[in-house]
Amino acid sequence: QMCGNGIRCVAKLAYELGLICEEITTIETLSGIKTLKLNIVNGKVKTVEVDMGAPILEATKIPVSSSAKIEDKKVKAEVKVKNKKIELTCVSMGNPHAITIVENVKDFDINKYGPILECDKHFPRKANIEFIELVDKNKIKMRVWERGAGETLACGTGACASAVACNLNGYIEKQSTVELLGGNLQIEWSEKDNHVYMTGSATTVFEGEL
Q1: pTM higher than 0.90 for the full model?
Q2: For residues 192 and 200, is the Cβ–Cβ distance under 8 A?
Q3: At how many degrees (to 10) do helices 4-16 and 156-168 cross?
Q4: Is 119 known to be catalytic?
Q5: What pLDDT, in 10s, does the model give residues 3-32?
Q6: Would you call 9 a catalytic residue per the annotation?
Q7: Which of 84, 85, 104, 141 is such that its CA lies 20 to 30 A from the CA of 10?
Q8: What are the mean pLDDT values of the chain's consecutive 10-residue runs (210 residues total)?
Q9: Among residues 3, 21, 160, 166, which one is catalytic?
Q10: In terms of C-beta density within 10 A (0-12 exposed, 13-18 middle, 19 or more buried), how is residue 55 classed?
Q11: Which one is catalytic: 90, 155, 160, 166?
C-alpha cells in the first residue's frame, strides 16, 4: 500500500525532473495522500521529511494516541516458533507491521524466523516483521523481513512502526534514530498532531534510458 523509502525517491525524481517545483508537495498512495517537505541543496534534493500520518493499532484498527500506553493488550501477540516464544507489538502505518525485541540484531537468524512470522495466523494478509535491538532512549537498530520480499536493507514504514512500538513499550523517546542496514532514518512521533514524521536521504545511484 505504501513505501516510506520509495516515496522519498519519487519526490526527489519529480523535483529534479522539473515535474514539481515546490519544496512542500503531496503524493497519493494506496494508504492515502502523504505530505512531503524537501530539503533542497544546490538545486538537488538531499533529504525528505514525510508526514506518515497517525499510527494504527493493527489489532484494533484504532488510531494510536501519542500519549497512549501499551496497556491495551490487543496490540500484543505471542507466537511460538520452533519452541521459542516471540512477543510481537502490532502497529500499522497503512500496512501491517509486527515488531519484536532481540538482544543482538546483527546475529539474529532472521531467515529462520522471518518467513514463519510473516505468515502467522495473526496476520491474514501477512505482515512485515521488524527485529529490534535497543541501543538507548533515542536510538534503535532494526532489521526487517518484508512480506513477499524477504529481508531488505530498509523499510520506512517499518522504521516508523518500530519507533511507535518501542515508545509504547517505554523503551525510547518520541524522537529517535532508527539504524537500518541501508542507513539511518530520523523518526518523530509528534505530540502536536499525533502524526509520525520520517526524515531520510534520497540519493541517485544510477540512470538509464530505454
Answers
A1: no
A2: no
A3: 130
A4: no
A5: 889 999 999 999 999 999 999 999 999 888
A6: no
A7: 141
A8: 89 95 94 94 95 79 55 68 87 92 96 93 90 98 96 96 94 97 96 95 92
A9: 3
A10: buried
A11: 155
